[in-house]
């Protein structure tokens, strides 16, 4: 059974790091309920949930994507760009060590939200959380594993995958890149057919393919309809409270196929 690694929502979620959003009141209890519904959506897609060790004192701890990169039988432990998140990787490594061969980025900074895998190419966004030194260190790790790293450009968004994610094959078998035209130029990605989200629905650019389903944050009806018309089985999940912490549907899990 494929697995999804997650971590419980911290009761201190309201103290999360913010880069692009104004701080708003966040209800950790409501966020936890939404996180549980997200996990159920993963289970209904055929994935077993594996909870990483809890980190109640780490406000951003539930956003596990930024701490590691899963590449088949390998797990690369990353170096998040926010100083407050550095020690989260210790817990992630403990949780993944029994299942993967571990590698560690030792220089610079890389957030997993900036890494978009398309086949054997890793597009890595240069952002406020990911720097050139981190991209170089990641390149050295993954090249022997058979992956190429390409630096990607983004603007006005937290991570590369805030503005573009791989929706997977449509009903014709064409691999589709879902993107927000205000944040990411799709021309920099090879081998995909780009589909822009509705301009009024930028959050829809962050989707998560799990098995035959596509998880999309609720509140994006036009984009959801575009995807359904292309044959995608879209599951909409309410993550509105988590979005106040700049979360997306990819950031709350590490997907192992």
TrEMBL record:
Top-level taxon: Bacteria
Entry protein name: Dimethylargininase
Gene3D superfamilies according to UniProt: L-arginine/glycine Amidinotransferase, Chain A (3.75.10.10)
Keywords: Hydrolase
Record-stated family: Belongs to the DDAH family.
Annotated InterPro entries: DDAH-like
């Amino acid at each position: 059974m494929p697995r999804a690694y997650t971590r419980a929502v911290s009761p201190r979620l309201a103290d999360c790091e913010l880069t692009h959003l104004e701080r708003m009141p966040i209800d950790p209890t409501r966020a936890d309920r939404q996180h549980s519904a997200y996990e159920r959506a993963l289970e209904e897609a055929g994935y077993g949930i594996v909870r990483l060790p809890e980190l109640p004192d780490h406000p951003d701890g539930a956003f596990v994507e930024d701490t590691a990169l899963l590449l088949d039988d390998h797990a690369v432990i990353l170096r998040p760009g926010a100083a407050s998140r550095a020690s989260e990787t210790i817990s992630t490594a403990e949780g993944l060590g029994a299942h993967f061969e571990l590698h560690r980025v030792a220089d610079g900074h890389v957030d997993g939200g900036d890494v978009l895998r398309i086949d054997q190419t890793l597009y890595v966004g240069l952002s406020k959380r990911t720097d050139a030194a981190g991209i170089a260190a990641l390149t050295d790790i993954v090249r022997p594993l058979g992956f190429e790293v390409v630096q990607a450009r983004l603007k006005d968004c937290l991570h590369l995958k805030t503005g573009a994610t791989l929706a997977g094959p449509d009903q014709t078998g064409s691999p589709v890149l879902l993107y927000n035209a205000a944040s990411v130029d799709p021309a920099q990605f090879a081998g995909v057919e780009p589909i822009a989200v509705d301009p009024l629905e930028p959050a829809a650019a962050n989707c998560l393919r799990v098995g035959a389903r596509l998880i999309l944050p609720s509140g994006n009806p036009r984009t959801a309809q575009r995807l359904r018309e292309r044959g995608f089985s879209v599951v909409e999940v309410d993550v509105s409270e988590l979005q106040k912490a700049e979360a997306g549907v990819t950031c709350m899990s590490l997907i192992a196929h």
